[in-house]
Amino acid sequence: MENTYCVIMAGGIGSRFWPESRADRPKQFLDILGTGKSLIRHTFERFRPMFRDEQFRVVTQRRYQQLVLDHLPELKAEQVLCEPIGRNTAPCIAYAAYALCKENPEARMVITPSDHLVLQEEALRAVIAECIDFTHEREALMTVGIRPTRAETGYGYIQISDDERISKVKSFTEKPNLELAQTFIQCGEFFWNSGIFVWKARDIITALERHQPEIASLFHTIGHLIGTPDEAAALERVYSECRGISIDYAVMEKADNAYVRCGDFGWSDIGTWGSLYQQARKDRYANAKPQEGCYTYDTRSCIISLPKGKVAVIDGLKEYIVVDTEDVLMICPRSSEQHLRKYIDEVKYNTGDKHI
Amino acid sequence: MENTYCVIMAGGIGSRFWPESRADRPKQFLDILGTGKSLIRHTFERFRPMFRDEQFRVVTQRRYQQLVLDHLPELKAEQVLCEPIGRNTAPCIAYAAYALCKENPEARMVITPSDHLVLQEEALRAVIAECIDFTHEREALMTVGIRPTRAETGYGYIQISDDERISKVKSFTEKPNLELAQTFIQCGEFFWNSGIFVWKARDIITALERHQPEIASLFHTIGHLIGTPDEAAALERVYSECRGISIDYAVMEKADNAYVRCGDFGWSDIGTWGSLYQQARKDRYANAKPQEGCYTYDTRSCIISLPKGKVAVIDGLKEYIVVDTEDVLMICPRSSEQHLRKYIDEVKYNTGDKHI
């Protein structure tokens, strides 16, 4: 693993888990599965068998720097790259690539979201190791695909072009509608986009220069300031000018050297209460609820989250989400989860940012 | 109003409003209607136009003495009669009667629960004044009846024997079943039992001696200790021997000098979440909910109670009770309110008294 770095992207604010996640404690810092560890901690430990502590980098928003260090005390402050604001994954990855390339021109990056679930970590590591090997020999932009188990409309899809273990990417499709998702599943050529990438830092920089010359030029201009006391001010300028765009849209869809290694390792992006429900341990009435203090009657297929030590008595709910926090209570049907944005907007409009 | 005392009974623990009411903050000390004042404070102010502050007495459990004084700072500590434990209304009233009779042999008592709602207070006071007048001339045990507006099965009923403004009581019936309650309403002779009584202290003592000689004898034995430093210890003995029984069962049903003055003054015992719902101000979707911070969607005919400052988003509930407190959340259909005792028992069994 010489010259290889594990880059954890931890800048998201995760409003889809409101009111559990908040602007000041996003999802990656929560123990949303009730395992005793936050999602970012799980992510770190998942890759630790492959990397030494000093090979990790975390990219996050500056306001979460201390939270990252609290959750990953093994890291030094300089291993946490701080964006002034979130601008989606393309600027995040560009920043990490320029920073690592400056530090080590041979740097190779394994990039992972900080807030996903992987049940078979050993299998994931084997896939990652293969991806790293593959990028040794060629200028490949590797992504990891997941064999789909349902016609999920909340994920991006990657189409493969052949049946090799590592295939050239034929196309990317963001969140299809249900009909299209069903076609994808039947067709067999489509895999979920895990958001995990492997490549050499200089190769993604080359791709950015080709497909996103504005972003590349912004970071190129401040390259000499990275790692100096002027870095933060320089990043302020770059991020104020840089548009927010995902690496998939910005580079992967356009690149002719995108490859995908498809795997099967019990993955979920746990992007919504619904997907958390899929993964959670349930009682015999299919309720995902705290093991203690939650008394349910005539209640089925609910997902219930309570603050530590709180008691709840819930009677007569079917397929609801009940999330209680210190200052916000939310009760809604599981089928109304897409209204979450509307709830948040109304609360924000009426009571300001305090509860957001 | 010379020689007349207003006795407020405030010893109940009100478990029917759990989790809002708790053993250490019963219903009478809560602002359960959201008016800005507790129910006991409303009760006090309701009778204040008729009585000077020194004419009030409150009977409560010793552990609530300070709470009473906090809510009614106009009273002196010696105006709060402290029972060691709750034993229903007969011992409570006996204690007050013996204490007042010792202080003033001519004492007349207006006895009222501390946790009921009266909307037309002026009308109530007129009724009370009439009752007081009535007891001047005779040894009458007066009770106040309420013209029923529905076949309520949670109340006691009083049957009148004639159409006079003040009628002799023909019978008392505790909580009838629905069929019987409907018959009562149609018949026109039955009124709700408000739990408000008016009589001379020595007359209720005479009635206790006749119908409850054990209770009378217990209090008679310690009569000389009331108002002395030995009163508390004496009461401990009396209450440990005395059985819990209501004044209706103990005396009123048996007495041949029970009279009732029926009135109509916007009364409710707000004994349950359901009866609170009846009285509460509702939004245009018939939800009784806090005016601020409670955002409802596709939600109708619910009663929602939140801690101060808490935000709630509630979607898709019809006819539910949602009560959130600092340490307990309860969600149940309004039709399941009778299960409250079961909820409380289960929480108590599993987590002890902490949340009760």
Strand percentage of chain A, roughly? 15-25%
Largest interface comes to:
A-B, 33 and 33 residues
What is the CA-CA span between the terminal residues of chain A? 41 Å
SS element count, helices of chain A: 11
- Given as residue ranges, the uncertain stretches of chain A (5+ residues, pLDDT < 50) are none
**Shape of chain A, please?**
globular
The biggest beta sheet of chain A, please?
5 strands, mixed, barrel
Q: What order do the helices and strands of chain A follow?
A: EHEHEHEEHEEEHEHHHHEEHEEEEEH
Beta-strand segment tally of chain A = 16
Overall pLDDT level of chain A: 93
> In percent, how helical is the residue content of chain A?
25-40%
Which structural class is indicated by helix and strand composition of chain A?
alpha/beta
Radius of gyration of chain A: 21 Å
What is the spatial order of strands in the main beta sheet of chain A?
Answer: 6-9-7-8-10
What's the assembly state of these chains?
A: homodimer
